[in-house]
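tool=predict chain=A
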Amino acid sequence: MAYNLLKGKKGIIFGALNDMSIAWKVAELAHAEGAEFSLTNTPVSMRFGEIHELSKKCNNAPVIAADATSISDLENLFTQTMEHFGGKIDFVLHSIGMSLNVRKGRTYDDLDYNFLQKTIDISAISFHKVMQVARKLDAINEWGSVVALSYVAAQRTLYGYNDMADAKAMLESIARSFGYIYGRDKKIRVNTISQSPTMTTAGSGVKGIDGLMDFTERMSPLGNATAEECASYCITLFSDLTRKVTMQNLYHDGGFSNMGMSLKAMNMYNMGLENVENPEELD
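tool=predict ok
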């Protein structure tokens, strides 16, 4: 059911690769709720992904290639988008993250520091660049909304998430710091959503993702939040219903972030112990 929550609003959605992407789900729902937007990703991702198919589904939304770590690309993206829509935009989704250390199997105590710099630049600093470029171009209307996707590993250690945890911690800090400036000067909201582990193309590259998703499903009283449910949450943050929500990291994880141990998880843990001869010797 659509509510026309975004009727008349314009935006930019970063990061849609294929129909497994949260950004893809956000675009579909934003379109259903009456928004118009441009779609963007890196040239490489656009060649290997299906973003042009998404564009067709969303009333031929403009597709503009941009590397979010490149200031010139971002300037071109915002300028072209404003020219297409004849004015400023109202919302931005930053759904970007990548770690070469994770992809190459480098553990956190054996990082390649060149990879680490790329992780932080792509997954966190790009968020600052997006907002800095938008602010200098005065590209976002008052009471606009900027949202980035984060994860609970920014606050808690989760095995296998690696240097992406550092990047997400920085991402959330940028949201607070830039959120103050953007709110003070332009009444623009900046928030992050800490989403449940989700089987996106990027998420599937995280070591042990299947086990992690099973664990968080058992730990969360409401279960894991899906990509479609995350999209719904994003839409509320783009809408006028959340005008006074800013500088927040908003957990969208079925309650996982406030849990210590659940009955389901404890039962599974005890079942495992029953099958181990010397559990005290386990790492």
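The domain at 10-207+224-259 is CATH 3.40.50.720 (Rossmann fold). The radius of gyration is 19 Å.
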